[in-house]
Amino acid sequence: MEEKKGIGFFEKYLTIWVVLCIVIGIAVGQCIPAIPDTLSKFEYANVSVPVALLIWLMIYPMMLKVDFQSVKNVGKRPKGIIITCVTNWLIKPFTMFGLAWIFFFVVFKALIPAELANEYLAGAVLLGAAPCTAMVFVWSYLTKGDAAYTLVQVAVNDLIILVAFAPIVAFLLGIGGVEIPWDTLLLSVLLFVVIPLTAGVLTRLYVVKRKGIEYFNNVFVKKFDNYTIGGLLLTLIILFSFQGETIMNNPLHILLIAVPLILQTFLIFFIAYGWAKWWKLPHDVAAPAGMIGASNFFELAVAVAISLFGLQSGAALATVVGVLVEVPVMLILVKIANNSRKYFERAL
Known about the structure:
The chain has 15 helices and 2 strands. It is mainly α.
């Protein structure tokens, strides 16, 4: 797979774009309430149709990059895959739940009403159950990771998402006392994982067969970059047009939500990265293994939060805070990984 040569302009300043979307969205909601009122009418099975279309614009191009043929190489170097899978699916969702519960219900109890705390917990859980699918290729490149092995790690994670995301989310939210409609959760997984993943795989096979892998990587995939950016920005503006009242009444909450999310990011990175060091893996495998769990498939988390709890929910707000903090925190981790390269085994 042809990788991005470093972090792009849009990705590098993602935090700034999110802040601008917050401002524009709140302004739209407060000054032109007819827009969110009209959009709220276009729903099916509690899923906003306009937002669903925009989210497909974000997720589909990411799924194009996943090459499931790489999964056949899983057995060649299994240790990195074991670290990735165990960290992402048996540790990360549960540490996210634990940290979010401690901060929202204990540390910040006097600052966050119980009802909102439940919704923020739900959003954090959705982030914790969705390991990174797309941006990890950027983080892998910036740490001089093994591109082929990173592709295998991502492909395995995407296969696991198909079967593990919904049960883990339902289990943890059940423990937290958050009721969710199973039918809506499963519909969300179908809409935002199964359908775009299937479409991405079929498109990849068709284009590669007709034009070749070089054309696919260097020309075809890049055609969708602007659609991904536009879909994300418009989704955030729509979401914040509904969130204006909540944010105006609780401006401090964005910072409060960010605390456990940031701590979780560092914790998961060091668990996977430290484990890789203990197992004496080369740095070009260890760094991406840490990055996949530390970063999130936030597009999926945002989509499911909106489907389950609505555009005005605290859950949707919490997932967007994840978008807000991800890039600056991940760039810090990239620097840590690069500065500690000398302590790892060299790639064979």
